[in-house]
Amino acid sequence: MKILVIRLSAIGDVLLTFPVLQGIKEKFPEAEIHFLTKEEQLPLLQLLPFEVKGVALQSSISATAKLLKNQRFDQIIDLHNNLRTLLLQWSMIRFQWSRVKKHNTTKWRMTNFKTNYFWIPSIVERYALAAKVELSGNPIVLNLNQAAPLSLPDAYAVWVLGAKFKTKQFPLEKIRETLALCDVSIVLLGGKEEINMAKNLSQEFPRLINLVGKTDFFQAARVLSQAKLVVTNDTGLMHLASFYNPPMLCLWGNTVPGFGMGPYGCDKVEHFQVTDLSCRPCSKIGYKECPKGHFKCMMQQDSSLLAQKISALFHQESPK
User: Fold this and answer.
1) Residue at 137 is within a domain
2) Which of 39, 177, 187, 303 could form a disulfide bond with 209, CB atoms 3.0-4.6 angstroms apart?
3) 139 within some domain
4) What is the rounded average pLDDT of the residues 174-196?
5) What is the DSSP letter of 168?
6) pTM (2 decimals)?
């Protein structure tokens, strides 16, 4: 049996498919699972403890369809569900095609009418419905054999600086405010876009361990696996951290947990968000800049409370 799973987007979106890939593997242990995504996301599949064959999205839909058409897949599960994947289906002349329910109408109501009483089911649960599999809840032990060793202290917190959109990113001045109020060993993680931010923070707070732009997926996973707690924006490394279920302080800007894209399977999560803004949520994804210009959804976050939580969790004794 050959199964094709499709998810074309960013790091976090691909990581959120892992529990469903596990469900497929448990339901069809002999199946050959293929995964279509952007080429830059293919290394993520090596984190899985079972084989999933990566297929790179080609330069055009027609080229991708040509690559896939002769594979004779028994099942195609579309966890992306947009115009591109609809065109791909037509190009492959496939009539049987399972799609995830995206709840775009509900998201439109939430962003346009600021209705805060909706709560969309987790995207992982919706993926599972599309794939027609059960979520076992068994933890996925990520494969970190390729992770190069890193020298780290025995106890540390992780602060994830990055986010794809600026309106999902905790501002530098707010991070400074928070760090000034808590004396905790913190490892900074992020991508190349955050290198200057991390450099500025490291100069001001020498206790910080700056690994921004210096780790790959595997090393980042190892750093997160040993953290006493994780402070993170709504971003891909939030979902990578969720496989280890650490105490997590999730910082929400223009997006909200109610979109169903929060960390999955974690029971020690606290959401930091400004809940009484008439302009929030303003987008289901994010913007390069605040559309209103004030960025209150992040600038009004309580740095003092965040610092207190970081200190309390860091110094909390682990259960024996």
Assistant:
1) no
2) 187
3) no
4) 97
5) G
6) 0.94
